[in-house]
Predict the 3D structure of the following.
Amino acid sequence: MNHDAVDYFRVDFTPEDSIVDGKHYPLGTFAAEMLDRGWEAVADIRWPLKRFQEEFQVFLASRNPSSSGMALQAMRELWRVLGKLPLYNKLLPGDHQMEALLLYLREHPDLTDDMLTPGTPRNEAYTRWMEKLESLEDELQAFVKNATWMLEEFFQNLPSRKRQDYLQAYASYRWIMEEAMQQRKDTEDEGEVWEDATVDLDTVSFDYPVNISLVPIMETRTHRLTLAEQMTFESLASFLYVDLYKGMGAGNLPRRCAHCGRWFLAEGGYDTLYCNRVVPGAKGKTCRQVGAHEREKEKRRTETAAREYSRIYNRLKARKRRGRITTDAWNRQVARAQELKDAFTARQITREEYVQKLDAL
């Protein structure tokens, strides 16, 4: 309709970055942000879109100042919500092109009539535009659902976080998805109903329509000219998939923080467990700082548990060897020592209680 960022935008890609409005972001940044925003951000679109559709239809029917004002208010609210989405939050703020649409339609009634006439090119463009807005929620929900399932099912327990491990995991995912798609097709061709609730195959696609050209850009690190892929998108979901997979190829992948549980972008193939968000109530410390401290404490706790258990185990073993306790007593006391070790490791008892109770055996 207006070739603004909602339905028409360009992103440049280098081997390491995406370039949005002249700013560089590590590949995978926006995909990780969408996963972190999740269902809540997507669901926020529904009611503002419904209200805008209603007010816009009233405006098209009457085209008077009152209906124009109501439609403009509804449009601003919808664009405000859209402006919180990943990528859109870089492109939409300060872009007021859409607000000129209503005035333009009022000033050109012949073009508006043509837009509302079925079969005309303007009507087809208008219909595609509305369909695009209506499908945005479902497309983003599908991205969040499918990307989350893929990352947790195929990338959670990788032996390492190197780029090649990512590509191998993605190859496994893609092979399984394509096999499932073929099985569904064969099943439906035989007149049977496909039944598999693991993944909604209707929302899985490996085709992301874009227009592409090559443009010269200046690299941020070397300050040398290079060629970047300039892709023009008409779908935010398509961009998010491209960003996700390009990031994967560069060694960047969204991952859940082991401390706060939120998604973040683990960059460079490193086995990064924690994000850099500030932890509430931690005096400005980040998840990475708190997590590293907790890991060190857990390591010391585990070492203490093993050391004290080994000490008492060897003492009990010496007693048994000298005949000072029976085999049954030995088994009971070793089992009790193991229970105390487990309780200490699970933080159910303190170190002092752990040592004291071990010494009492």
Observations:
- The chain is about 60% helix and 10% strand.
- The CA atoms of residues 310 and 337 lie 10 Å apart.
- The chain has two domains: 1-277, 287-359.
- The mean pLDDT is 87.
